[in-house]
Amino acid sequence: MKKKLSIAVLSMFGMFLGMLCTLPLVGQESAPKPVGQLVLFADTAVFADPANPENCTLRNRFKAGDYVGFRLYAVDGGTNQPEESAQVVVHISFGGKTYDLPALYRAVPHKNEKGMNMPIRPGMWTAKWAVPQDAPTGIVHYSATASDKYGRTAEWTAKGGQPSWVTIVQ
Questions:
Q1: Of the candidates 127, 133, 81, which has an alpha carbon nearest to the alpha carbon of residue 105?
Q2: Interacting residues of 88 by C-beta distance below 8 A, sequence separation 6+
Q3: Which residues on adjacent β-strands are paired with residue 97?
Q4: CATH number of the domain that 47 lies in?
Q5: Three-state SS for 124?
Q6: pLDDT digits (tens, 9 = 90+) for 26-84
Q7: Has residue 154 been placed in a domain?
């Protein structure tokens, strides 16, 4: 009787180990690699105090002290769904230097610089740049790049030439 019980226990333990070996490890992806390209697109808007009626208005003309808001979207071209693993960065060329602004993925809670909760915006990344007080008038060149957990990359620049670029006015 003891021998049969030992064999049963060992058999059960063997089956348990067999099932355990087939489970994915923690952090291991079970989803297949996507077949579409990573697509990135963006626009610029006024990022002001929420009480300001100009807040979130699409614009590309800004004055010194204004906040330029970059609203970006990284999409899996195979599914047309936001690629939530994307890391998005805005690159601004201004005053002979290039500034890299990491964008926040807005589908998760964030707080603004005043400690207030920011609205949740699924599928959107945002970055904010303050136009320096001593900024000369003229064109500001900018672009954005994205990369995801699958190794895909995407680049974006404003289309349409000079009228589409951020312009500093008096």
A1: 127
A2: 40, 72, 74, 102, 103, 105, 125, 127, 144, 145, 146
A3: 94
A4: 2.60.40.1930
A5: coil
A6: 555 556 677 799 999 999 999 998 889 999 899 999 999 999 999 999 999 999 999 99
A7: yes
